[in-house]
UniProtKB/TrEMBL annotation:
GO terms for molecular function: phosphoribosylglycinamide formyltransferase activity. Pathway: Purine metabolism; IMP biosynthesis via de novo pathway; N(2)-formyl-N(1)-(5-phospho-D-ribosyl)glycinamide from N(1)-(5-phospho-D-ribosyl)glycinamide (10-formyl THF route): step 1/1. It comes from Plasticicumulans lactativorans. GO terms for cellular component: cytosol. InterPro entries: Formyl_transf_N, Formyl_transf_N_sf, GART. GO terms for biological process: 'de novo' IMP biosynthetic process. Catalyzes the transfer of a formyl group from 10-formyltetrahydrofolate to 5-phospho-ribosyl-glycinamide (GAR), producing 5-phospho-ribosyl-N-formylglycinamide (FGAR) and tetrahydrofolate. This is Phosphoribosylglycinamide formyltransferase.
Length: 203
């Protein structure tokens, strides 16, 4: 399965995918990593793994549609069977989401549908949540609204701040994403409209 990974920064989720692919546990060929921001650590991680590292600076484009069209062109050069958003901090246009419907995944640091959007750890703490976590979902035009098919839960502990909670969630993210992508590569999980099918069963 050919995969292109989109990032915007640190790339720790990317690293877990690179490691899993190199270790043989994840049957994918990561063809390229594309960042909308130049000079970020994730690009270095890609280069260190011998993966093509591309910067497509969104500031160089007039509007969202122009950027997304350029992004589609850069992605489709690799003819991926799956596009993975990993710390990608751009809202994608409906046209982009439609183009990759059924083969576009994202990881979000909350137990969706709770806490869509940003600053999820701060918001979970502010709400007094006793547990939090991460969700993997197919991406649709609705921000963080696509069908979820894998989640990890972590406890919120006394004395947690956003940093300690985020670290606990991130640890699970790094376990979750390689598993989710392996299932997709094995044909076990598929998007079916606004639902997900796992081994044929509708979730
Ligand atoms: C993580 O919290 C992830 O859930 C979110 O972006 C953050 C940064 O991830 N998608 P990474 O280290 O850049 O993979």
């Amino acid at each position: 399965l050919r995969v292109v990974v989109l990032i915007s920064g640190r790339g720790s989720n990317l690293q877990s995918l690179l490691d899993a692919a190199a270790g043989g546990g994840l049957p994918v060929d990561i063809r390229a990593v594309i960042s909308n921001r130049p000079g970020v650590q994730g690009l270095e991680r890609a280069r260190a793994a011998g993966v093509e590292a591309v910067t497509l600076d969104h500031r160089a484009y007039a509007g969202r549609e122009d950027f997304d069209a350029a992004l589609i062109a850069a992605i489709d050069r690799h003819e991926p069977g799956l596009v993975v958003l990993a710390g990608f901090m751009r809202i994608l246009t409906p046209a982009f989401c439609a183009h990759y419907a059924g083969r576009l995944l994202n990881i979000h640091p909350s137990l969706l549908p709770k806490f869509r959007g940003v600053h999820t750890h701060e918001r979970a703490l502010a709400e007094g949540e006793t547990e939090h976590g991460a969700s993997i979902h197919f991406v649709t035009a609705e921000l963080d609204g696509g069908p979820v098919f894998l989640q990890a839960r972590v406890p919120v502990l006394p004395g947690d701040d956003a940093g300690t909670l985020a670290a606990r969630v991130l640890e699970q993210e790094h376990r979750l994403y390689p598993l989710a992508i392996r299932w997709f590569a094995e044909g076990r999980v598929r998007q079916d409209g606004d639902r997900v099918r796992f081994d044929g069963a509708l979730l």
